[in-house]
Amino acid sequence: MKTVTGIILLAGQSTRYNKGINKNLDSLDDKAVIEHSITKFLNNDLVNEIILAVRPEDIEEVLEHIHNNKDNNKPIKIVPGGSTRQESVYNALQIVNTDIVIIHDGARPLVKDSYIRKCIESMDEYYASTIAVKAKDTIKIGNENNEVVETTNRENTWVIQTPQCFDTNLIKYVHEKYKNDFVTDDCSLVEKEGITVKLLEGDYTNIKITTKDDMDIAKKLIKKQ
What we know:
Blueprint: E1 4-10, E2 27-28, E3 31-32, H1 33-43, E4 49-54, H2 59-69, E5 76-80, H3 85-93, E6 100-105, H4 113-121, E7 128-134, E8 140-142, E9 148-151, E10 158-167, H5 168-177, H6 186-192, E11 198-201, H7 212-224
Parallel strand pairs: 1-4, 1-6, 4-5, 7-11
Antiparallel strand pairs: 2-3, 6-10, 7-10, 8-9
């Protein structure tokens, strides 16, 4: 069995949340948002350890949530988050010694255990994979003048989510090689090397909480689960 580290990102600035707090620490169904994501990874038997990338000013509060809700002995480590998502992942990778890394946005609290499992199991055939959903709308690519330059084929257009899973040596290598290049997800770094990323179909409930409206939707969805 290959060993697996789950990296959960909690260091975002929450600038679009407009509540003056870290969205990951806001309450969702009587628990902090982060507790939902952490619990899913703690309870997955394929994950051996968890690393949390956390803003330094939030570490004390995050530790409190961990201690209050941790019901097993799976190791949880904390690293300081960076100024970007990419820096936060890079910081976490420095202490990873397992075979596989699975990276998740803490602000996706409705992630299903089956998606964590599916990502990890895909590593038998691929070096990189991600949960994604097919686009429901027509997507157009624009230029700097907001003029349409291309329309994608909706059947082949996917909206990328997390978790995303990688061979550890590969993801460490591309993060080091491209650490000065800005990307919005880790798969983009792997793509720069021409390596195939496997798309694993998820669902539209695996939303990322970015705005207060997203939180309102998450509260409704979690009541249905």
